[in-house]
């Protein structure tokens, strides 16, 4: 699968840069943490080691992906055209909608009663995914949240959001 | 799914829902079960200490009381959470009394301060210094002081800033130890005991209840207990109190830790009254007495103004010990917390609304 | 002799009390369900049930709580195999081969074998516990702070190199990111807030359960549902119980090996079911004849982690009963429950309560039988769930993940974090990064961080005394060995695909 290899070479290159930035941020912040008695036992010690490790891994990934054409591939991935193309691909659109539905569900949590919110979420998601005939999926979407609520409140004694 | 199955499911669901809402009359908590937010992890010292109390109070009231563990930031996360919820008597908080001192000066909780709660303190336990003479060569209090002065002994504590840490600092100051003490934290008093037993650490400072079995079985030796009189454990074993070793140790504050269940001070009076009644009943039960004896605790049944008074003193004492040990950058002075020597209940009690 | 009489006496007592039998069957079923639902764990279930057990006599409480513990530890394998979302962190390794088997239409036998493996693992660990407790607890005392740190490092390194068969370096990166995530919040030595950006919620740290279900659950939901036609599982259910001849011939060595690993990991305080499962999977992959097929759907890949994560149970009881130091988080809950009942595990247990260890053994044995019964009984209906269209099944998982995340800390913030973790998990999947090391990193991070610094406290900032510790030295060599093997594998992998791409 040559195409995939190349794509991941570019992705590796981009990850490496993010990883190094993360490592640098971690290290800088770790060095600014309070020092008790000696640095070796202070809160910043472990994050500093991790920061250094991330920078090391980042350098390693850059080296490896460069040898496999990573830089050119990363540049190709990041062109506006390519980004646009991935954003309008049907797979991305579908995944993004599924995500938005979950996002809306989570955002409304605590504002609408859990049972009704879950019913609404499930109905919308089933309809969007074309999951089945409406007279089959809607009862499922109605009963499932009620059962979940009952199980959690009465069996597991967990208060609802 | 066939229509029959569907119908049965709907019927079952509505039955359940009905059953749940049917018995609401004559309850302390009419809207559902209350929840106690324990500020430490499940199975830890605080959790273990408060669960018997909650279970007995549950029994007396006859309603379920949920317990959830919300660990983090020495219980400040749980304190803020409970204070942030409605003060309707459905959210309670449980922690160790040593934690309050750090809330303001480490900027972890502004709402969790002692006078925002009513507290129910059922038991207390002293701190102890323990050693394993075989591995460490330390046999007496004098040996320990010498080892500390020579910088040869590591002192094991569960975590920095905890009550037992404060105790070591106060003990060392009274004993005239000049060398800075090297601490090794272990995460829990039980783990400290094992580390002392294995010879990894020379001296352990623990909440006595965690080590009582090691002491009974002769594996660990108690150098002293932070209390004012010796404790007779059995016919052959009496453990010395810190004040047995000289008058200089009277300066060590008596910081016996408690593990209170707390409710926001402005919660409905009916609920607080019911809780108080159940609390007193729970402390009188033989189960509580047995539990306390086995764990090396003492049942104290402390609530109301008495509880506020003791907690406020501990609050001040812990805050200053933490600050003096450089565990907090902000001085307790900034929050008008008096040094324990200067602490006076008559000056402090106005905060709690007493005249 | 007296001791064995106690054991048989306890068995008799348990089996003659119908209440106990009911509690064992009820408890293990409840535990199984808890394990199946992503986000509910054995620890949480025990915490919720402690108060209920307080009103029971001691024998019943022990039987009830241990049944829940055994059930919940085993139940995680179902969701790992069926929907590729491990119900508990301990089942993450099971998902590697289990889910592949399910996709090939062998879900039934995978689940059945998983339950049998869990049963054998539990029984093996009980036998070890009953016979060797007085000797084995010494292992727990040999592990100081330095050894704990190395063990955490070792755990994350093997998980990193195993969860992806292609490029172990990616696994390690993800594992260390898990370590980094675990540093968020108040650290455990000085209560100093790290990377909290002034948020009180973050001071409590990154919640494990919410992250686990976000990373595995939400990312799986989005990843599968975005496909134009999500995968389907066809085929007959087939047999649930593997042919016994095959089981003994092919799987026995793996079973014994994994049982021993599980027990030892259980004895070591701080390392729990998850570490045991990964280590056993690692050893399985290295030692088995079919080692190179691990990850593509072999039964041995289900047996190793499932035997081990259940064998941790008996192992974890050993330091709990002798030193009052729990070997795993659910064991800590069990300890708390026993304290409530006035039983103080620890050095005095054998003197004050000589029948307690036999009681635990008998209860665990009955619990594992009940677990096996429910597991095999429910395996067929569970496999039926596999056949439900993913478009219906996976959206139904979402409300469960939401409550699972919420119930960990009773705060909505955890649910937001779960969603965020889900997005991270999704991105990592897209780039061929494994997810399991991140969760294990989050679990082991605090152990690594704190133990490392505690070891340095003890040695007063010197590294040399640490290198003189024999067990530590062994662990260092083991870590080096893993790194060396991983680098070799990664080089071989890239050589192969580069050759392929040149050829193509």
Please give the largest β-sheet of chain A.
Answer: none
Please, what is the average pLDDT of chain B?
85
Based on the structure, what is the oligomeric state of the protein chains? Answer: heterotrimer
Helix percentage of chain B: 40-55%
The share of residues in extended strands of chain B comes to 15-25%
Given the C-alpha coordinates, what overall shape of chain A results? flat
Overall pLDDT metric of chain A: 86
Question: How many β strands of chain A by DSSP?
Answer: 0
Distance between the termini of chain B: 69 Å
The interface involving the most residues is between: A-C, 69 and 62 residues
Low-pLDDT runs of 5+ residues of chain B are 14-25
CATH topology of the largest domain in chain B: D-Maltodextrin-Binding Protein, domain 2
Helix content of chain A: over 70%
Domain module tally of chain A: 2
Assign the structural class of chain B, choosing from mainly alpha, mainly beta, alpha/beta, alpha+beta, or little secondary structure: alpha/beta
Keywords:
heterotrimer, B: 355 residues, alpha/beta, D-Maltodextrin-Binding Protein, domain 2, 7-stranded mixed beta sheet, 5-stranded mixed beta sheet, 13 helices, C: 504 residues, mainly alpha, two-stranded antiparallel sheet
């Amino acid at each position: 699968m040559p195409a995939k290899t190349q794509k991941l070479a570019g992705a590796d290159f981009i990850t490496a840069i993010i990883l190094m930035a993360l490592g640098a941020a971690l290290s800088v912040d770790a060095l600014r943490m309070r020092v008790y008695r000696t640095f070796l036992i202070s809160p910043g010690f472990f994050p500093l080691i991790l920061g250094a490790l991330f920078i090391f891994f980042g350098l390693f990934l850059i080296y490896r992906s460069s040898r496999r054409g990573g830089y050119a591939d990363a540049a190709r991935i990041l062109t506006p055209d390519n980004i646009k193309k991935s954003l309008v691909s049907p797979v991305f659109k579908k995944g993004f909608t599924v995500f938005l539905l979950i996002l809306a569900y989570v955002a409304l949590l605590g504002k609408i009663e859990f049972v009704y919110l879950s019913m609404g979420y499930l109905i919308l998601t089933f309809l969007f995914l074309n999951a089945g005939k409406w007279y089959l999926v809607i009862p499922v979407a109605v009963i499932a949240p009620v059962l979940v609520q009952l199980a959690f409140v009465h069996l597991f004694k967990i208060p609802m959001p | 799914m066939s229509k029959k199955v569907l119908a049965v499911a709907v019927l079952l669901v509505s039955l359940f829902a009905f059953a749940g809402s049917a018995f609401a009359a004559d309850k302390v908590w009419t809207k559902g079960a209350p929840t106690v937010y324990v500020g430490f992890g499940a199975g830890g010292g605080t959790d273990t200490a408060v669960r018997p109390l909650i279970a007995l109070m549950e029994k007396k009231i006859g309603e379920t009381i949920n317990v959830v563990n919300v660990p983090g930031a020495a219980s400040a996360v749980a304190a803020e959470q409970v204070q942030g919820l409605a003060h309707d008597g459905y959210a309670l908080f449980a922690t160790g009394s040593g934690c309050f001192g750090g809330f303001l000066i480490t900027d972890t909780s502004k709402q969790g301060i002692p006078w925002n709660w009513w507290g129910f303190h059922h038991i207390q336990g002293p701190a102890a210094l323990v050693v394993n003479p075989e591995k460490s060569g330390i046999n007496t209090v004098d040996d320990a002081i010498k080892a500390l002065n020579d910088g040869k002994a590591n002192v094991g504590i569960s975590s920095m800033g905890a009550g037992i840490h404060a105790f070591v600092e106060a003990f060392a100051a009274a004993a005239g130890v000049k060398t800075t003490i090297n601490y090794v934290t272990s995460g829990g008093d039980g783990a400290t005991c094992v580390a002392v037993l294995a010879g990894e650490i020379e001296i352990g400072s623990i909440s006595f209840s965690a080590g009582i079995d090691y002491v009974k079985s002769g594996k660990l030796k108690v150098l002293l207990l932070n209390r004012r009189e010796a404790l007779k454990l059995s016919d052959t074993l009496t453990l010395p109190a810190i004040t047995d070793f000289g008058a200089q140790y009277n300066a060590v504050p008596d910081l016996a830790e408690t593990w209170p269940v707390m409710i926001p001070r402005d919660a409905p009076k009916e609920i607080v009254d019911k809780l108080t009644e159940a609390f007193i009943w729970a402390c009188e039960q033989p189960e509580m007495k047995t539990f306390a004896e086995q764990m090396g605790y003492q049942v104290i049944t402390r609530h109301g103004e008495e509880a506020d008074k003791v907690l406020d003193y501990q609050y001040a004492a812990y805050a200053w010990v933490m600050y003096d040990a450089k565990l907090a950058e902000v001085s307790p002075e900034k929050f008008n917390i008096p040094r324990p020597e200067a602490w006076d209940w008559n000056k402090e009690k106005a905060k709690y609304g007493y005249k | 002799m007296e001791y064995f009489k106690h054991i048989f006496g306890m068995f008799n007592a348990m089996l003659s009390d119908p209440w106990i039998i009911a509690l064992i069957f009820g408890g293990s079923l409840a535990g199984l369900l808890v394990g199946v639902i992503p986000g509910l764990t054995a620890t949480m279930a025990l915490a919720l049930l402690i108060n209920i057990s307080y009103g029971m006599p001691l024998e019943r409480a022990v039987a009830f709580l241990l049944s829940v513990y055994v059930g919940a530890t085993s139940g995680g394998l179902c969701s790992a195999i069926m929907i590729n979302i491990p119900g508990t962190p301990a089942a993450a390794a099971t998902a590697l081969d289990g889910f592949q088997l399910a996709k090939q239409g062998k879900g039934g036998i995978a689940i059945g074998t998983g339950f049998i493996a869990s049963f054998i693992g539990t029984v093996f660990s009980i036998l070890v516990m009953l016979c060797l407790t007085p000797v084995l607890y010494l292992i727990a005392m040999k592990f100081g702070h330095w050894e704990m740190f190395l063990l955490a490092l070792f755990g994350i390194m093997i998980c990193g190199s195993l969860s992806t068969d292609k490029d172990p370096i990616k696994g390690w990166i993800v594992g260390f990111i898990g370590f980094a995530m675990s540093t968020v919040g108040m650290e455990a030595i000085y209560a100093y807030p790290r990377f909290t950006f002034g948020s009180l919620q973050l001071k409590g740290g990154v919640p494990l359960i919410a992250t686990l279900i976000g990373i595995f659950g939400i990312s799986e939901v989005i990843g599968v549902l975005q496909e134009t036609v999500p995968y389907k599982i066809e085929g007959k259910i087939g047999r649930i119980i593997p042919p016994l001849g095959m089981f003994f011939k092919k799987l026995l060595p793996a079973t014994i090996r994994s049982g021993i690993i599980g027990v030892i990991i259980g004895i070591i305080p701080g390392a729990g079911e998850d570490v045991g499962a990964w280590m056993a999977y690692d050893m399985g992959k290295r030692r088995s004849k079919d080692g190179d097929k691990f990850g593509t759907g072999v039964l041995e890949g289900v047996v190793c982690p499932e035997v081990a994560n259940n064998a941790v149970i008996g192992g974890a009881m050993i330091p709990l009963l002798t030193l009052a130091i729990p070997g795993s988080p659910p064991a800590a809950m069990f300890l708390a429950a026993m304290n409530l009942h006035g039983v103080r595990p620890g050095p005095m247990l054998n003197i004050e309560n000589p029948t307690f260890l036999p009681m635990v053994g008998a209860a665990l044995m009955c619990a594992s039988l009940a677990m096996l019964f429910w597991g095999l009984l429910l395996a067929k209906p569970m496999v039926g769930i596999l056949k439900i269209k993913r478009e219906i099944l996976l959206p139904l998982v979402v409300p469960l993940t939401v409550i699972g995340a919420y119930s960990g800390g009773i705060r909505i913030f955890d649910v937001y974090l779960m969603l965020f973790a889900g997005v991270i998990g999704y991105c990592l999947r897209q780039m061929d990064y494994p997810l399991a090391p991140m969760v294990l990193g989050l679990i082991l991070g605090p152990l690594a961080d704190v133990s490392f610094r505690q070891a340095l406290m003890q040695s007063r900032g010197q590294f040399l005394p640490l290198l003189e510790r024999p067990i530590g030295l062994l662990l260092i060599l083991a870590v080096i060995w893993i790194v060396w093997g991983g680098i070799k594998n990664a080089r071989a992998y890239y050589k192969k695909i580069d050759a392929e791409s040149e050829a193509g």
